[in-house]
Design brief:
single chain, alpha+beta, Herpes Virus-1, 12 helices, ubiquitin protein ligase activity, peptidyl-prolyl cis-trans isomerase activity, Cyclophilin-type_PPIase_dom, Peptidyl-prolyl cis-trans isomerase-like 2
Amino acid sequence: MGKRQHQSDKMYLTTTEWATFYGGYKKASHSGANAAFRRLPLSHCCLSLVPFSHPYIDPNGNVYDLEAILPFIRKFKINPVTGKELTEKQMLRVKFHESTEEAGTSSNTDGGMEVQYHCPVFYKPFTNNTHIVCIRTTGNVFSYEAVTQLNIKTGCWKELLTDAPFTREDIITLQDPQHLEKFNIADFYHIKNNVKVLEDSEHKRQAGSHRLKNITKDAQEILDDFKKSYREEQGDSEEDQRKPDKYNAAHYSTGAVAASLTSTATNIATEHQPAVLEDHVVRYARVNKKGYVSLKTSLGSINLELYCDTVTKTCDNFLTLCQRSYYDNTTFHRCIRHFMIQAGDPEGTGKGGECCWGGSFRDEFRPQYSHKGRGVLAMANSGPDTNKSQFYITFRSCEHLDSKHTIFGRVVGGLDTLKLMEAVETDNKDAPLTVITIEATNIFVNPFKDVDEQLAKERAADAATAAAEEAELRGGKRKRLDDGKDKPKMIRSGIGKFLDLTMTNISKSEEEQIKLHKITKKKAAAGKFQDFSAF
């Protein structure tokens, strides 16, 4: 007993009493969706968290429904509970024995009747406190009590329903009342990391247009056009990540500094960087000689000289296709006497073919070249800037084709073969009646390949020189540090051990000036403010 023992008593429930003693509000970690322990019933799938209909288990004894676990494994290839690797072959089909009753501990519902799982040997119903195991070899589910009494203690290692042999390692625990951590939903990997397979309806809900319920026809058309033209932002491509060197650095900058200054949509840039020239610009500027190719046909060989130093892109396309054996086993599909013979179409119809970069490329007209004489090599096209792989060789002058077709070479050998081609009979569509085939192409001189090799050698030499200079600089700095040249000299111990007081000598004139400055005092002002009494 004591005085004032009921002084703190109040006529109402305090917050602490309401939260701890008398029910009411509980902390988020004790109950609800954020509780530290949330028990999953045995009859529920560990992935979908709903009662299963086609039960399968993993090697740890976690139960899943087939319709839920199969798409998950195929997409993520991990265990939804543990997050470790899991494959379809590791899943085991299990068989729960059911007994329908009107009341009781239900595991699933079917047509208003409650389904209860039980042990097929002792016929005891499974509850949340039953120790349940499964036999790996058969997939049948029993109570641990039945397996212990009838198998383990008796030493009879045959399955209780099918007499199939099994071992102790084949016993998989599905539920152990002493270790319920495996049923804690809060610890599931797919719950913690929000890993799930989205259905079509969920994909639609995630789209921004799902929230637009009422929308006009004009707005819908605008959104449709935006979907067609919209592209997700991607990282810098390999071309954008190339660093300029003395070979591909342009005389102008990338313009990133000006763009970042005038626009908030671009990344901040404070240093001017030279723009990087395209590879073909660097290569073509170094080509200064002609190329030579031989076409081996069914009527003989034709040697061609290519104007690689002036008509660079067209010659590069032709040499690249020859190097890829693109023209091998193709035919001359069109021949007009006293005019020209055309080839280069793999389909043989005159409508196929493509350039080495895919599609077509621009014309390259040069005023110094004209369709004069026999044996002019030019590109066939279907209009301006539609050059692909087809080419033709003229039988005589046809200057009306100038500035319409790109001339990129001439015949320097095999004019007799060209004469035999002109003599071949054709049908009413100018197709040769005797098939003329390009059996193979042989490249004698390829200036573009030589330029690529030279550039590679020069860049390798520059890289080796830069590495040697950097190593020399590092070695010189390391040597100076080892010799102690860059280290300060210690004069004494203690505070100020690196200060050299002998270097503070002052000349006499400087010392006299300092003394004179100290002695000199500030003179009083000649005039001062007074009142007007003496006025």
